[in-house]
Amino acid sequence: MLGFSPLLQVSTFGAELSSEACRDLGFSSNLLCSSCDSLGQFGLHGIEPVCRQCCQEEARLELRKMYAGAILEVCG
User: Fold this and answer.
1) Can you tell me the distance from the alpha carbon of 73 to that of 25, in angstroms, rounded to the nearest whole number?
2) What are the pLDDT digits (tens) for 56-76?
3) For a disulfide at 27, which of 1, 3, 54, 75, Cβ 3.0-4.6 Å?
4) Of 23, 19, 51, 29, which Cα lies nearest the Cα of 38?
5) Per residue in 17-54, pLDDT tens?
6) For residue 49, what are the contacts with CB-CB under 8 A and spacing of at least 6?
7) What is the pTM of this model?
8) For residue 25, how many other CB atoms are within 10 A of its CB?
């Protein structure tokens, strides 16, 4: 747990961190919030708030738009 002490010192309650700050803390820019839910299984409850500030919500099925097709035009 000592390796995570810089994470525990971050105090930006409820605010999102910049992508640079999250990267410096070791979080991927593609981090999904569902991954933060799993931290407790590994005894990492202390970094969950920071994880939540760096994660992206998954798109919900009902919010997605489906199209019948698309046309890709390549200009050269």
Assistant:
1) 40
2) 887 665 566 778 888 989 997
3) 54
4) 51
5) 898 999 999 999 889 999 999 999 999 999 999 999 99
6) 13
7) 0.56
8) 17
Q: Are 52 and 45 in contact (CB under 8 A)?
A: no
Q: How confident is the model at residue 15 (pLDDT cuts 50, 70, 90)?
A: low
User: Tokens representing 27?
Assistant: 């979080």
User: How far is residue 1's CA from residue 43's CA, in Å, rounded to a whole number?
Assistant: 9
Give the N- to C-terminal CA distance of the chain in Å, as an integer. Answer: 54
Q: Cα angle at 15 between 29 and 63, to 5 degrees?
A: 60
Contacts of 33 (CB under 8 A, 6+ apart): 51, 52, 55, 56, 57, 58
